[in-house]
């Protein structure tokens, strides 16, 4: 064998050995890289799982916060309603106290039988028997009627921001005169006479209105003189309804 052939073989052998070593190192590097990739994949999977858990916790917290917001809004609404209700109750009590005091100022007339006070359909009603005020078929006020209305006027003119409707009523006995063709005219004329007297006594005209109901709103039957007398009356109605006045014992007369 020639020396040159031997040298060439040695060179080829060294080259092959070197290449195999390089391949071996590269293979090992690839194995290590793959292992690291697997480790990274597992770490990413763990992080993803953890993040998903955090997302669930965040969603739960958001739902809790939303529920708390709803409850807080409901509580705020309930508190506002309670505050408004308390204001209404205070205002109602103030009005009731004011009107109870008003009724007490009529005590003298009530005890004398010249005035009856009641609550009807949430309205305060002052009822004056017609026989105290007028003679039969007449519209001129009698002295006792003038005195009673003067006492009533002294109280009514102290009342602020209220309207009073003066309503005339008759019994069912027909009347047909030149002056009063029917009980409508008679009851209206009597109501107007009361209004004029109240104004003369200092009650503001803007507080008063007059109307006649004739025989069409009886308090009792018209079968006897006693019951017919109950139907002949003048009523002074406080226009603003006060629903809770019926609870006041002073007004149950």
Report on the structure:
The protein has 253 residues and is of the alpha+beta class. It contains 6 helices and 5 strands. A 5-stranded mixed beta sheet has the order 1-2-5-3-4. β3, α5 (183-200) and β4 form a beta-alpha-beta unit. α4 (143-156) packs across α5 (183-200). 20% of the residues are buried. Mean pLDDT is 85; it is low at 241-246.
Descriptive terms for the model:
alpha+beta; 5-stranded mixed sheet; 6 helices; 5 strands; 11% strand; rod-shaped
**Rg value:** 50 Å
Q: Mean pLDDT across all residues, rounded? A: 85
Number of strands: 5
Helix content: 55-70%
Order of helices and strands: HHEEHHEHEHE
Number of helices: 6
Across the major sheet, the strand order is 1-2-5-3-4
- N-to-C span: 151 Å
- Contiguous runs where pLDDT drops below 50 for at least 5 residues: 241-246
Main sheet specs: 5 strands, mixed
- Any idea what the shape is? rod-shaped
Strand content: 5-15%
Helix/strand class = alpha+beta
Topology:
Layout: H1 3-104, H2 107-111, E1 116-120, E2 123-129, H3 130-133, H4 143-156, E3 164-169, H5 183-200, E4 208-212, H6 225-231, E5 233-238
Parallel strand pairs: 3-4
Antiparallel strand pairs: 1-2, 2-5, 3-5
């Amino acid at each position: 064998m020639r020396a040159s052939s031997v040298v060439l073989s040695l060179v080829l052998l060294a080259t092959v050995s070197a290449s195999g070593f390089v391949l071996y190192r590269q293979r090992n590097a690839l194995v290590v890289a793959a292992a690291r990739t697997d480790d990274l994949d597992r770490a990413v999977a763990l992080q993803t799982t953890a993040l998903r858990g955090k997302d669930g916790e965040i969603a739960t917290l958001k739902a809790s916060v939303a529920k708390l917001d709803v409850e807080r809004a409901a509580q705020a609404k309930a508190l506002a309603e309670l505050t408004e209700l308390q204001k209404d109750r205070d205002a109602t009590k103030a009005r009731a106290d004011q009107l109870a005091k008003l009724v007490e100022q009529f005590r003298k007339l009530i005890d004398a039988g010249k005035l009856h006070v009641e609550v009807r359909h949430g309205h305060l009603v002052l009822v004056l028997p017609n026989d105290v005020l007028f003679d039969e078929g007449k519209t001129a006020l009698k002295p006792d009627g003038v005195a009673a209305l003067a006492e009533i006027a002294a109280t009514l003119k102290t009342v602020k921001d209220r309207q009073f409707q003066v309503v005339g009523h008759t019994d069912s006995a027909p009347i047909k005169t030149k002056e009063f063709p029917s009980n409508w005219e008679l009851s209206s004329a009597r109501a107007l006479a009361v209004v004029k007297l109240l104004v003369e006594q200092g009650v503001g005209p803007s507080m008063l209105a007059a109307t006649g109901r004739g025989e069409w709103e009886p308090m009792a039957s018209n079968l006897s003189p006693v019951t017919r007398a109950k139907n002949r009356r003048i009523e002074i109605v406080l226009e603003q309804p006060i629903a809770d006045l019926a609870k006041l014992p002073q007004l149950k007369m």
